[in-house]
């Protein structure tokens, strides 16, 4: 059975991405990160989603990315700003974590190499846009080129590990519709940056999520404060 | 004063690389990794070298890369193989850690972005060759291209973070000579993979190091078992 490493935060996007990988016939190897994010609660959702999709294995990488600083998500002294669901490209919010997707993809590639997976799935999207530079198509394109020379499996064995981004060009509305169609257990997901049991409803992540559900005409099953 | 993030393992190469950055007028921000490597003892050397060069800051990233597996350096069940100082390109040894340099460079780039550093220094070299695909020039070239679109500082502010590899084309002999000329406190460095107080003298890393010292006609000041 072909294997895929899936980057799984437990949010709407990565959960939908897991469903896509599963539907495409991959055996799921999930990878999640405790990077000392304030919304560490998302990892409970990640576990629930990995379990739901019968992940063959689910590894948790723990890393003190707060030592690097520079982000409201890892520095308790920076307040999570109120969200803006229509962010322009040059408006990168304080919740941006320097090079986070690059770091996460690098681990995922390492894991894919170690278990001889064919693909890495990441649920980034650039339509209803987080404002993060490492969610854009040009970033992924360059990462693909790099992946092709970065590992033993690619450099020596000439096997490529595919970097799959099934949500890249979907709007949040389309992601919600797709998740619903695929039967993603949306009630298990967690997207809010603040990290309470109930979603705050006002951070960037909540606003984008609520916009997607509203435009899809579907009620978000997670509780809001 | 211009800032550089220096990837510092405490070995011969990264210590020499630190000396080069210092000589070029950079203020040193060192970054070291406890990735559950068997030779964690190298971090004592990293600290000593950072102190020696008056690093403005030295951060330690802790991360359970052993969860990924696939390497003799992070898996206690895989023996560190005897070294071969004349390794061919397709002979990647068991000490290869999947995507390690990619992961380390990604953190270094994140740190450089967070502190607004101009450059990242990494002491990789591809002449007396470790056999690791992520030590080759083509890997670094692709990483540079990726770095230019991966971060806020590059994508939005159009400022590039330089990825400096001053040792890339040096032989181990040349590195030893350069280290000696620069006054690197070689007695403080640690290169051995096995991780004892004394270097084993037979692993890949020891063999390459000893070859370099022998060819340079200089006595290695660290104790061997």
Question: Which features would summarize this protein structure in a list?
Answer:
homodimer, 225 residues, alpha/beta, five-stranded parallel sheet, 7 helices
Supply the helix-strand structural class of chain A.
alpha/beta
Q: What's the story with the biggest beta sheet of chain A?
A: 5 strands, parallel
Main sheet: strand order of chain A:
3-2-1-4-5
* Coarse shape of chain A: globular
Helix content of chain A: 25-40%
| Uncertain residue segments of chain A | none
Give the quaternary arrangement of the chains.
homodimer
In short:
Two copies of one chain form a homodimer. The first copy, chain A, is α/β, with parallel strands linked by helices and 225 residues long.
Describe the structure.
- Two copies of one chain form a homodimer.
- Chain A is of the alpha/beta class and 225 residues long.
- The first copy, chain A, is 36% helix and 11% strand.
- Chain A has seven helices and five strands, in the order E-H-E-H-E-H-E-H-H-E-H-H.
- The first copy, chain A, has helices spanning 12-23, 42-52, 100-115, 137-150, 152-155, 172-182, 204-216; strands spanning 3-7, 27-34, 57-62, 119-121, 162-164.
- Chain A has a five-stranded parallel beta sheet, sandwiched between helices.
- In chain A, strand 1 (3-7), helix 1 (12-23) and strand 2 form a beta-alpha-beta unit.
- The longest helix of chain A has 16 residues, at 100-115.
- Chain A is globular and about 50 Å long.
- The N and C termini of chain A lie far apart (43 Å).
- Chains A and B meet through strand 3, helix 3, helix 4 and helix 5 of A and strand 3, helix 3, helix 4 and helix 5 of B.
């Amino acid at each position: 059975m072909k294997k895929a490493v899936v980057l799984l935060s437990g949010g709407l996007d990565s959960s939908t991405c897991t469903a896509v990988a599963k539907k495409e016939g991959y055996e799921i190897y999930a990878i999640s990160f405790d990077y000392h994010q304030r919304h560490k609660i998302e990892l409970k959702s990640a576990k629930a989603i990995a379990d739901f999709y019968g992940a063959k294995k689910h590894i948790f990488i723990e890393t003190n990315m707060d030592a690097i600083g520079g982000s409201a998500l890892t520095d308790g002294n920076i307040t999570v700003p109120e969200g803006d669901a229509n962010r322009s490209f040059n408006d990168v919010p304080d919740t941006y974590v320097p090079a986070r997707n690059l770091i996460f993809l690098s681990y995922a590639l390492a894991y894919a190499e170690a278990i001889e997976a064919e693909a890495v799935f990441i649920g980034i999207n650039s339509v209803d846009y987080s404002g993060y530079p490492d969610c854009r198509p040009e970033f992924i394109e360059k990462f693909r080129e790099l992946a092709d020379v970065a590992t033993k499996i690619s450099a020596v064995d000439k096997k490529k590990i595919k970097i799959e981004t099934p949500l890249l060009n979907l709007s949040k509305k389309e992601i919600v519709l797709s998740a619903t169609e695929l039967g993603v257990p949306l009630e298990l997901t967690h997207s809010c940056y603040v990290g309470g049991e109930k979603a705050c409803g006002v951070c960037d992540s909540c606003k984008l999520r609520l916009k997607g559900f509203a435009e899809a005409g579907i009620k978000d099953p997670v509780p809001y404060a």
